[in-house]
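Before a computer can learn anything about folding, someone has to put a protein's shape into writing. The three-dimensional part falls to structure tokens, numbers that each stand for a local backbone shape. The protein below has been through that process, and both of its lines are reproduced in full.
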Amino acid sequence: MKFTAAQIAGILDGEVVGNPDAEVFKLAKIEEGTEGSLTFLANPKYVNFIYTTAATVTIVNHDFIPENTLTTTLIKVDDAYQAFSKLLEYYNQVKLMKSGIEQPSVISENVTYGANLYLGSFSYIGKNVVIGNDVKIYPNCFIGDNVTIGDNTILFAGVKIYSESVIGANCTMHSGVVIGSDGFGYAPTETGTYSKIPQIGNVILEDYVDVGASTTIDRATLGSTIIRKGVKLDNHIQIAHNVEIGEHTVIAAQTGVAGSTKIGSHCMIGGQVGIAGHLTIGNHVRVQAQSGIGKNIQDGETIQGSPAFNYGDYSKSYVHFKNLPKIVADLEELKKNHSSES
């Protein structure tokens, strides 16, 4: 899809300096711009590239005054970075603007769905599913029986949603996400084997939840695993049965949260963090990458380490960790000196 500089300026409330009919059909970084591409200049470090870029159109701030000849058409706006972000959002909406039911696909009995559904080929929708308006379900998705999906939610290719799950509005699930798989529940037997504990609960995702590729959220043993409004989960995260994650918490890749742990709101959890089960993590907690959490965490704490402890204490201790060989050598030298003096 092609856009002219004038059309883009209209979207951004900008001013064209150059050819208003210049056409673009792709986006690029300023140093990698080619003919037909749209780019932007917001960081002064990249100003030299505006004189060499082959991009057809460049978004700049109103106060930008070129010092050399330009070959790119300019669109001047109040804030180039925000304007480009707005354009990316608009571009993404246009790109994802699909509707209709592709074949082959399966829609089981008693399914209801709203306006502008897009259902990609080779997808399956189970019995009694309720789907809202403007939902996009890309190819090879599975939706089990009695699932509810809210308005404007997107399921990218290969998402699997098990039965009874409840998905809110304006959610996004990327490829390979699994919602509602069995929790890891087994009981040891007298013979040394393990007996499966039935997992009969469900998963609830509230509105505006984003789930990254290949992340798994297990169904509860009883009750619900709950992901609250605005939570953002990165790729390759494991959320176990009966976990609850508070509003607007963000969790980076390869983190694992064990069963029945409660995480508060507005937390920031780094990559490869391991959180043990049946814990309570407070609100506004920050956990540094690769930390291991084995105890409850109070509101507002910033922690690091494995096992994790207070971030300030960790930082002070780390200075000594790095110097440990020298400290040991100094101690040995002191012991020798003390022995010789004796």
Q: What stands out?
A: The two ends are 88 Å apart (CA to CA).
